[in-house]
Amino acid sequence: MSSPAEKAQSPASEAASPKGKAKSPTPGPASPATARASSAAPKSPTPAPATPAAARESTPAPEIPGLLSGAHWLEQGLPTADPESDWDSTLGSDTESSTASITSSILHYRTLNGRTYHSDTVTSGEYWGPNDEKQNEMLDIYHHTMTLVFDGQLYTAPISDDPKHVVDIGTGTGLWAIDFADKFPDCTVIGTDISPIQPTWVPPNLRFDIDDYTKEWAYKSNHFDYIHMRWLTGTTKDWTAAYKEAYRCLKPGGWIEHIDASGTIYSEDNTINEKNAMVQWGKIWQEAGRKSGNPVDLLERNLQEQGMKEAGFVNVTKKDYPIPVSPWPKDEKRKELGQFFYLVYTQDLEGLCQYMFGTVMGWPQEQIAVYLAHLRAELKNMSFHGLIDFRVVYAQKPLDAED
């Protein structure tokens, strides 16, 4: 399918389908305009005790060159408002628990500077995003933005017209899972997350599970027709391990699709450079990922494609979608896309960076506040033509995969 934001796609060569033996079953189910496509022969689907990907992901990336400190932004002071470039002023104001059986301990959220985060009882790791109303509204806007990127479609993988079992990993507020369940009423859909923030009024063929995908998945082997993952950057140290669990849980011939973003904001016309807050955004995030051990440079290090191949998947295809971060394009469709992505960013900038900038990078609150003031001013300035890349990688479990 085509999109005005999609990069030119080169044909993928079909990889040979290896035979391999998946991990032993775990007892029964419980709980995006240019496209580049690539495909290569996978490694053996048999999970090995250790993989090059695991070693890669556990090794911190080198320190980020050109990174400006929080103190730098504090020294700059607050930016001067420019009414002529303040597109945002024209916007105006139009900008519970799941069906799973959960214990009250899951609702014992952590707090950080007045924001709530997931309960420590669900996962041993720390997710950087809050789970409160402001952040959840941002996730809803993000879901709509992604449907615009994909011309209203919920997926790009060539899945069956009649899927029976589908899981959405890291479902957030659950809108993708709800829309998929509505589109396929005969399909059993599961959405998983570490916070019970999904609605209770959902299609009858949908349920939400509170679960941590970075641990062993509590689903039986060879069960799902399609596994969907979206915006999970910075949430795991080992992507190959997660993809191996997905491989185990997919039926032979089933598909996995992982959509994620680069934090790097760039321009194709040199309207921004390393001194801009926009460009520094990605550098700060990458350094925070390096310090925490949870990589956020999935695109830069090609972790999705490499991890899926090492997990045993075949027909691995990737496509990059450069998205405007504000409505600067003249093309009306891309302008609309930029408008919504601007809303994604500015709905809850503090929530996006509170943990990574403050807790991980050690920036005091006043440094974060001044940096974000500069970032907001640049996002409002239509002379800055910022872009950010989203990457879709989908792959198939071999039809002849052994149980």
TrEMBL record:
UniProt xrefs under SUPFAM superfamilies: S-adenosyl-L-methionine-dependent methyltransferases
In this chain, composition skew of type Low complexity spans 31-43, 51-61, 93-102
Q: Which InterPro entries match?
A: SAM-dependent_MTases_sf (IPR029063)
Q: Which domain of life is it from?
A: Eukaryota
Q: Where is this region: Disordered?
A: 1-102
UniProt keywords, alphabetically: Methyltransferase, Transferase
Gene3D superfamilies assigned to the protein according to its UniProt record, in alphabetical order: Vaccinia Virus protein VP39 (3.40.50.150)
Gene Ontology annotations of biological process type: methylation
Specify whether Transferase is a keyword of the entry: yes
Q: Does the keyword Methyltransferase apply?
A: yes
Gene Ontology MF, one? methyltransferase activity
Return the similarity comment: Belongs to the methyltransferase superfamily. LaeA methyltransferase family.
| Protein name per Swiss-Prot or TrEMBL | S-adenosyl-L-methionine-dependent methyltransferase
Per the UniProt entry, what species is this protein from, by scientific name?
Pseudoneurospora amorphoporcata
